[in-house]
UniProtKB/TrEMBL annotation:
The lineage of its organism: Eukaryota, Viridiplantae, Streptophyta, Embryophyta, Tracheophyta. Keywords: Repeat. The keyword Cytoplasm does not apply. This is DYW domain-containing protein. PPR repeats lie at residues 92-122, 123-153, 209-243, 344-374, 375-409, 477-511. GO terms for molecular function: RNA binding; zinc ion binding. The keyword Repeat applies. Pfam families: DYW_deaminase, E_motif, PPR, PPR_2. It comes from the Eukaryota. GO terms for biological process: RNA modification.
Amino acid sequence: MPPPQGQTPSLVASASPSEFYALILQSCLKSGDGREGALSAAAQATGRSVHAGVIKSGLWSVYLMNNLINFYSRSDSAADAGRLFREMPVKNIFSWNTILAAEAKKSGLDAAMRMFDRMPKRDSVSWTIIIAGYSRKGNHREAARIFTNLLSSCAAGGAIGVGRKVHTFIVKLGMTGCVAVANSLVNMYYKSGDVGTAKMVFERMSLRSVSSWNAMITLHAQTGRLDLARAQFAEMTERSVVSWNAIIAGCNQNGHDVEALHFFRMMLKDPSVSPDSFTFTSVLSACGNLEVLRPGTQVHASMVRSQGLSCGPLENSLISMYAKCGKVDNARKLVEHSASSNVGVITFTSLVEGYSKLGDLQPARQIFNSMKHRDVVAWTAMIVGYVQNGFNSDAIELFRLMLEDGPKPNNYTLAAMLSVFSTLALLNHGKQLHSRAIRSGQVDSVSVNNALIMMYSKAGSIVWARRVFDQICWSRETVSWTSMIIALAQHGLGEEAIALFDQMLLAGIEPDHITFVGVFSACTHVGLVEEGKNYFMQMQNTHKISPTASHYACMIDLFARAGLLQEAQDFIEKMPVQPDDIAWGSLLSACKVHKNPELAKLAADRLLAINPDNSGAYSALANVYSTCGRWEDAAMKKLQGFSWIHVKNKVHIFGADDGLHPQREAIYEMAAKIWKEIKKAGFVPDVDSVLHDIDDELKEQLLSRHSEKLAIAYGLISTPEKTTLRIMKNLRVCNDCHSAIKFISKVVGREIIVRDATRFHHFRDGSCSCKNYW
């Protein structure tokens, strides 16, 4: 048999038998005049001879069989092509597409569609064959239907590459003017993330249906451009229930819940439409977010009247609405009477939030225990509920149970547990969780990293907090920079906090209102009054952030701690809002340092008028009176101070003159020893800080047994030499303890980190990081 037409002898000689026969078949196809079935008699005879030779030689390959099928289908022998296809034990996509093309041209589109439906897998060629067949026959409606199905498949599967090829084919067929096809293109590009092309297709549409407008409203709303969604909604001359649902859901999902209810009221006035379950779901969500019960109950009544709107998402929204509005009992009853056999995660989360607000998590735990399928969201919701209500031990215990018998914790779970370890200053536990996050790959999560920054900071390890931040500062997340600024401020590193803030601005990262709380706090801790005033003006004039109560409280604290009590009082009088208890508390604390009992009495009275149960106000006022020698006035209830230290996975808590610890004798022996040594080193007890009119010897005895000194004594006898001691205290550290701990750090050669109610103190070699300004 001579070499195939157009092939050199050397190339043919190097081909395998299958490839040789395939080359001959391809050469036969090239001998025609380009029309189907227009092969010469000689070419057809050669092709059949090749088939006979294949059978005799026993050769078989998918590649060779595909070439034979292609030869028969192109030589007007569709029956032979079909028989050969049916006999193939193994077929690939080329086999199916070849026979599909033959069926579409010879047997008709009905047979081709049956073949198309049987295909185990389809590619862009398969779709092109079937659509082109309908288009050639003039059946453009069916071609459009298939196009819309294909584009929907591309959108669902994220196959944007295939979708673009289909778009090109649509343009070639001149079907871009078909509204249904154009709508599908908009939807495909939008769901694939190509918002720009979706808008371009919409803008080029000569005719638009209600569905076209609905698609664009949904696109704008879900990409956060609610302004564009509103504008296009306003342009619509005809609206369907889907149009109203799109704008209401868009407002709800973008946090514009008041506007969502406004559009809902407008919808009720439109006689051409009626709300459906999707409408009610968004409206109930908005009611829950706003904690407005009345419209929510009206929707509930409408649902009861309709008797056909009890779908799962709608039930969840109704239960969530009642829970968020404080009607947890109503929500619980709906759960108990729900048609669903198992409480959904969304429903359960809403119930936990509701019970958390009431501070009663026992019913939530009962529901959690009864759930048949508890996924990571349910576990996390229950843990977060415990954390938000201060039930840290319960949160830790549930987390341990989750690790043993539950799903793998997610980013939110780890962030919640890091918050617990932050509160309790459990540094070792936090480090273990950090290691777990690294192993699981969750360390890349912004929420986990921010929680790590706060955990290390609150546990006294500002160095590790900075290391974590340095690994993620490229993320340009405002919350990450803010967390680090606050951490530096709390550790007395005000200049570093301000420098980081300036670096943040240079990087083009926009600060928020919480960032400025950290900046003002940094200025306060190091006495940068003028800088604080400048930043206060910059916040308003440059960043257009209106001051909140927290910002005003920070400024009052800034003036008061710097001894500018009159300026603090003048600032209060000029404030456009009423000072809160934090602001008055800051002023009251400063009055003790600067010995101003009259202003302290005013601040305490105002503080107690806002929060009558604030026992700290009485304690602070008593401190002021005792400092000024007014012993009778100082004889009032004082908030009990506690300090604690974490040693060998156990928290040890001490009160002043505490005698309950099982190692009390060794603790007091060490406390007495240290007291003598620091006095020899030059320490002078601050007997004026004792709130009792007793002799100085007894005052010294009381001072030597303050809770933080006992905690330090226990740390000295329970940890190896040179180990850093980390002490936590519920109140602000007193003058005597602050001075004493500076001497202790030098005498024992250890770093001692104390976290009090307002900040961190790093004592090292006889000095404190606060530079005696706290």
